Amino acid sequence: MSLHRRILGDIEGRILSGEWQPGFRIPFEVDLAEQYGCSRMTVNKALSQLAKTGLIERRRKSGSYVTQPQAQSAVLEIRDIKLEVQSLGLPYAYSLSARAKRKSNAADRLRLSLATSVPVLDVTCRHFAGQRPFCLEERLINLEAVPEAEAETFMEMAPGPWLVNQVPWSAAEHTIRATSADGDVAAALGIAPQAACLTVERRTWSNGAYITHVRLIYPGDRHALVANFTPSQP
Question: Which CATH number fits domain 71-226: 3.40.1410.10, 2.120.10.30, 2.10.109.10, 1.10.1610.10?
Answer without folding.
Answer: 3.40.1410.10
